[in-house]
Amino acid sequence: LDEAGKITPESILGQAGEVPPVKKHCAIIGAEALHKAIEDYRKKS
To answer: Best label site of 25, 31, 39, 43, fewest CB within 10 Å?
Structure first.
């Protein structure tokens, strides 16, 4: 979980390769959702 918590929108975009500019916000949403899920999991554990 610690390693997953370090994932950033930039790292997602770096792994995704070429992403149209209008879709780059998806990386931000994805990283935020991941961080929230980790936070929720830790609160429940």
So the answer is: 43
Strand runs labelled E in the chain: none
Separation CA 31–CA 12 (nearest Å): 8
- The residue length of the chain stands at 45
Distance between CA atoms of residues 40 and 3, nearest Å? 16
pLDDT at 34: 98
pLDDT in tens, 1-45: 999 999 999 999 999 999 999 999 999 999 999 999 999 999 999
Question: Using CA atoms, how far apart are residues 45 and 30, in angstroms rounded to an integer?
Answer: 22
